[in-house]
Amino acid sequence: MSQVEKKAGLLRRSSSSKKPLKEKVVLMYDEIFAKEDPAKNNSRFWDELFLMKVNLEYLESKLESVDGEEVQRIQDNINSLFHHCVQALGEEHQIKVVNALQTLCALFRGVHQKNKSASGFDIINMLMGFDKAEQRMKDLMERLDSLLCGDGSESLKSLCLKLLLCLVTVTDNISQNTILEYVMINSIFEAILQILSEVSSRGQHGYDTVVLLALLVNYRKYESVNPYIVKLSIVDDEPTLDGMGMVVHHALTEYNRQYKDKEEENQGGFFSTLTSMVGSMFIADADEKLSVQTNEAILLALYEAVHLNRNFITVLAQSHPEMDIPTTPTTPTPTTPTSPLGTTPPSLDMMNNPELPLDPNLQTSNLLITFLKYASIVMQDTKDEHRLNSARLCLIILTCIAEDQYADAFLHDDNMNFRVNLHRMPMRHRKKAVDKNIPSRPLVCAVLDLMVEFIVTHMMKDFPMDLYLRCVQIIHKLLCYQKKCRIRLHYTWRELWSALINLLKFLLSNETTLLAKHNIFHLALLVVNLFNMFITYGDTFLPTSNSYDELYYEIVRMHQVFDNLYCMVLRVSTNTGQWKEAASKVTHALVNVRAIVNHFNPKIESYAAVNHISQLSEEQVLEVVRSNYDTLTLKLQDGLDQFERYSEQPKEAAFFKELVRSISLNVRKNVSLNTLSQDVLLKEFSTIS
Amino acid sequence: MADAEVSLSPALRPLHLSPSHSAPPPPPPPASSSSPTTFSCPSSPSSASSSSSSSSSSSCSESSSDCPVHHHHHHHHHHPRPQLHLPPPPHSEQPSSPSASPRSSSPSGSIGSTGSLGSSASEGIGSSGVSSGGGDARGPSPPLDVISEDAMEMDLGIDQVIDPEVALKACQEVLLQVKLQNREVPEQQQVDNKRQQEDQQQQQHFTDSMEGSGPQWHVSPDTSSIKEEDEEEDEEEGEKRDSPPSARPESSSLLSASSSSSKQSWLLRLFESKLFDVSMAISYLYKSKEPGVQAYIGNRLFSFPDSEVDFYLPQLLNMYVHMDTEVGDAIRPYLIHRCRGGITFSLLTAWLLGAYSSDMHISTQRHSRGTKLRKLILSDELKPSAPPPDARGAVSASVFDGPSSSSSSPRRCHRRHNSSNTDSASSFSAAGGPSPDSPAPGEGEVFVSPSRRTHQRSKSDATTASSGPGSGLRRTGSNPKVEAVHEEPDRLRPQRELVKSLLCIGKRLATLPTKEQKTQRLISELSLLNHKLPARVWLPTAERQHHVCRVPHTQAVVLNSKDKAPYIIYVEVLECESFETSPVPVRIPETRIHSARSAENLDCGGTAANANANCGSVMMSEHRAGSFSTVPNYDNDDEAWATDDIGQLQVEVETHTSSSDNISQFSVDSITSLESKEPVFIAAGDIRRRLSENLAHTPTTFRRDPEDPSAVALKEPWEEKVRRIREGSPYGHLLNWRLLSVIVKCGDDLRQELLAYQVLRQLQSIWQQERVPLWIKPYKILVMSSDSGMIEPVLNAVSLHQVRKQSQLSLLDYFLQEHGSFTTEAFLTAQRNFVQSCAGYSLICYLLQVKDRHNGNILLDSEGHIIHIDFGFILSSSPRNLGFETSAFKLTSEFVDVMGGLDGDMFIYYKMLMLQGLIAARKHMEKVLQMVEIMQQGSHLPCFHGSSTIRGLKERFHMSLTEEQLQVLVEQLVDGSMRSITTKLYDSFQYVTNGIM
């Protein structure tokens, strides 16, 4: 998209007769960069300047090329230019406004590129001058605010947002962007809300707005009081929150759809029939192609909304029609996540239409479902760093959700049943899940499925310990809720149990490699305690009495794993070493599991012996289990149903800092000059003027 | 006398819309004994006026509508003219009460009543005085008060007699006038205005009371309210007078003489008698060809309590639509009056008119009376342009904090106020008292709440704005939208929109293939609907006045139906004093429920908040400020919410609070063990045992079945559902919170259902009256058009089909499972309930020839009653004419088993009940017949197919049989039904075609 535009622009510039015009601008720029006050000779200099088409490249390169001493010399002129830009924003003449916005953009960029190492104060001084900075920025923000909220042209609003994004991302580390201090003081939060609350403006600017908000919220998050955090946390206007949810929903849906398309592309043709058999051979290739770049900015926005604003939780459950069906090829050029800030607003038909479309094929969906699907895709491959970060962020968001009572309430709501088609990684030892026959179940089942899926598919050398911990903790939080509210979820717990046991098995067999990098005992402890939850509190949340028997069956069946684990932790805890304490915790936690194993194993063996059966059937084992409960005594363990609440600081601070940095880079890259100098815009206004 | 009356009225008010009637035998004031004249009186205004002097026929005519009110006065006829003057005295007493205006919310202001009372009661003269009195009094005298009522009633002592001759004449004149009126409303208004000035001319007064009300109200709020009240009070009076009909032979004779028809005199006596109820009125309205009689009854309608007339509204409207102009003209004033009175009545009328007009040929339909009236109503021209409601609105607004107040309808309130001065004084003084006189613009009422609401909103905005630098501006910017929506001047609009969107949902659902998809879609559609609530909308099936505040959309479920998509929704409402004038509740965000749940943990939450690192305490305080201001009414919860919101109670806290649940001792144990280091041991067997016990103890629920999503929803005990939904609702903590439910049907003609409902209600009251313990459950039907409507669901009931499919038990075994073994009291009670309801519905099925009786159409409630639903095939229609179901009613061997077998006592009891029920029904056959017959008029409903419908119905009452013969008949019916293979055959037929067991 942007490429094309650029070319068009170049062509035009080189071939058209507008050359002299361009020259004039450049001449004027040169005048600014001269020592003299450009208005001295020509009192209408500034008026004229903003009537000229901006030459961003030239202006920026000019700024970059200015060296230290020159800066002092031309500072007055640059200050003046900045001042007049701000003033021009108030002009009725929209061409002037457009040009002023673009010039400002170039100013911010140019100055920063020049002064990569310079302190923020220098930059402020250079742009506005210390003494006037406050007033200038106040004016600027007010102008932008009124442009964003006015009835003006949508393209103009879009340009305003680009300018803001440009401003917010000029530095790699957002917190070092001193100019943002003024954006904190002169909040444009309300403008953001207004854009999000209106259907039409949301459709066109929603994406940029949400990204902008996510970035602003992360400015000096931990060091100072960020008014955007404060304000975001108290928004309770439903249309606005809904609007925000819609934007996120749409972006994630778009991603899911693209992924699906790619997937189908890869499987297309006559290969599709072969993949099930020979598939594994192609998987490596396919994986490469399937990686669609993730959308961290939107995910960050979702996180901030979920984390900061309790009211947003309701938005998660707000039903929308499912949008990821490719039957609606609305726009030929849908925004690709790689250039999310491109000029074409995403096709937001659904968002623009308050009425639900009437299509029997449309499944009802909601933000949470879309998010779960997204997470299932992202989690498939955590090798590349972006995806790892995205997967981590997804799990953090799920952690926040699992901790929220209201969210738990609708996750477990028996009346809200959905089919959630999670993406499953094709693996050698299992067939690709058949999408269709997934029953309609409460949403929490989908969350649990996702966790199980993750556990099963990531036991690899490069062990994502952090993700595993989060994963197990999410399960734990959900169980705590179920226990507390006595919700008997009809879930096939067996799958979870066997996944967890397999995880333990993996930890055991890779002990040495893993121990070099991770504290595997902590994870083992969490897993064992999940079993303890089931063993001691199963009566409060298991769906059937049979399921309790099955739990015992599963433990006894896999007793080898627990035995080995016990040996291992016992060994480590008796040695002196850094893991001593961690390991001994696991030994204590294993008390009940071992009691079960030691109690039932002999019983089963003797049953087999008495009945002369070499291999007991499941039913027979269950029978033995059922008849021998009463002689088994368990120890009640403390704090099984307690968990540490999620808190961003200090644990996650570093992660978010890095994440925001990477998002900033990405956004900056995409707010290209070309998107700023849209011919469309000029055309639109040239007809007016 | 006076005392008696006074006492009466208070009692009545709370009960009925129009007090007078509800009280069956009001102690007749001695004076009023004159009643025989009544006939003439009813024509009231004219009669009264004419009585005094046939002065101006014209005036009478206009007044026709008003007439009813005035009748009362006629009785007192003695000094027709004087009466006008009489009113003043009462006024003088009343002046003290400025409160008058506030009550006026509904047209029937208490004030007016007093005024009227004063006039009417005071000296019988009142007749003219009523209206006129009211009008006159208002001008010069301060608003009447409750007190005045008493005073007036005292005055009743004076005898008054109306000249029957004159009355009769007047009657006819009235008729004429009515016709004129209908055409020239504006004229009337002018007249009204004149009247005000010409109080002395009684006739004019009459007219005022009715038609004039509109314009007059504009003039001064107080007066308007007064007028309305006058009318109502008059009605009361009228009734009282009616009661002693025999007292005055002379008058009747006079009448007869004048009319020279003995029959009429009889009629007159009948009409005057206290036995004359709405049912008879309707009947005579239908049968009588005499315009005078029709006009009289038309007027007389005013004197019946609204609720009683409402029951016959379908009949009235059907007559209005399909019968000759005379009848229509007679009814019209009443309809207009009531439509002015309330949104509810207006909409009901409009819907029914639409439905009943639909049978007409399109060409005629367009110009028919019904269609025109419907248009008139929907155009919303019939609004009570009265300021009173406004004042009332203000009152209720201020009173809003105490939403639990029981009084439901404005009228009732009035009554109450009248009855006890202190009462009214206190309640009104709260807000309305101080400035009752302030004249408000006609539409004021509508805006009251919106403005309040927006005001609050903006306030909250302001506060949030202040919290952060330069914030808030934008948000106020978006508010205008909200206002725009709510300031919809059309008072009928919100409700119509609601109904429309509900019906649209139904239509759209019908296109989806599976139940699961339907339910999902339903849920998401409703969640959109939720965004627009709370609003000034209500569920017409409900008893009490309320505003709908939320639809717990996840609870909604699609019902079983082959090609249509009926669905049941649960609706949270907040009861209020007056649906029309009380302020619409403020919206509370969904997440606000956290507050209620965790209110106990306030302090802990606070500390936790600090712990929560990233937001910091700054944010918390901000947050609080914000939420406080948003909904000032719910301070406490807000606080709780705010803390909890950020605080995210820590686990420890939560476990502590949950320790109250004793099902599992473990959760408790685990905490206690925290302190004591002693290890706690538990037996695995105990855990397992508790698990199975817990599972066993949960009430028998149905399994979730994607093919039958409603089974689970309907099986859940209502109380439990209410509790559950209340817990999850942000409005749940409000005292006036209620849960209602309604079935929305699209694409079905509910007119037959409505007829069946009426017949059932009629029979139910007959059996009650005759003390036959038959049990039936008529459920309310709302007809919204000829192919849509709403149904009041039967609570705690599931269909026999669902019972069977889910439990896989025989009916008897299911009873044993649900209620206990044979000898337990619970079982016996359930069995008795079953028998009584079986007997009731057997009779119903026989009399109405209810067909299509498969198990999906028979419900079983949690107390053991069966309830038949779906009266789509009754009287002359039967499904697909397959010739199945020839038996009189459905009595399967399963039923007999539950009753204890063929030889059991309960089975004998069953037959005995049927016999008693039939005898009782026979006694009141006319009431039933007449209802059905009227509805046949102009109807194309399948139940009226053929010419013998009514005759057939009549024959099934077997008037000619002796009781012994009847007994034999019952035996035969029971026998036949039991032996009938066709019932069984039909069931299997249903199973094959529809999957219904």
TrEMBL record, chain A:
Keywords: Membrane, Transmembrane, Transmembrane helix. It comes from the Eukaryota. Residues 435-671 form the Armadillo-like helical domain. It is found in: Membrane. SUPFAM superfamilies: ARM repeat. GO terms for cellular component: cytosol; membrane. Coiled coil: none annotated. SMART domains: DUF1741. Pfam families: ARMH3_C (PF08427). The keyword Membrane applies. Its main location: membrane. This is Armadillo-like helical domain-containing protein. It comes from Zoarces viviparus.
From TrEMBL, chain B:
Residues 7-21, 32-67, 93-130, 244-257, 419-445 have a biased composition (Low complexity). SMART domains: PI3Kc. InterPro entries: Kinase-like_dom_sf, PI3/4_kinase, PI3/4_kinase_cat_dom, PI3/4_kinase_cat_sf, PI3/4_kinase_CS, PI3K_accessory_dom, PI4-kinase_beta/PIK1_cat, PI4KB-PIK1_PIK. Belongs to the PI3/PI4-kinase family. Type III PI4K subfamily. Its EC number is 2.7.1.67. Its cofactor is Mn(2+); Mg(2+). Residues 179-379 form the PIK helical domain. Residues 228-237 have a biased composition (Acidic residues). Residues 70-82 have a biased composition (Basic residues). This is Phosphatidylinositol 4-kinase beta. It is a peripheral membrane protein. Residues 1-151, 187-257, 381-493 are annotated as: Disordered. It catalyses: a 1,2-diacyl-sn-glycero-3-phospho-(1D-myo-inositol) + ATP = a 1,2-diacyl-sn-glycero-3-phospho-(1D-myo-inositol 4-phosphate) + ADP + H(+). Residues 716-982 form the PI3K/PI4K catalytic domain. It is found in: Mitochondrion outer membrane; Rough endoplasmic reticulum membrane. GO terms for molecular function: 1-phosphatidylinositol 4-kinase activity; ATP binding. The lineage of its organism: Eukaryota, Metazoa, Chordata, Craniata, Vertebrata. Keywords: ATP-binding, Endoplasmic reticulum, Kinase, Lipid metabolism, Membrane, Mitochondrion, Mitochondrion outer membrane, Nucleotide-binding, Transferase. Residues 187-198, 483-493 have a biased composition (Basic and acidic residues).
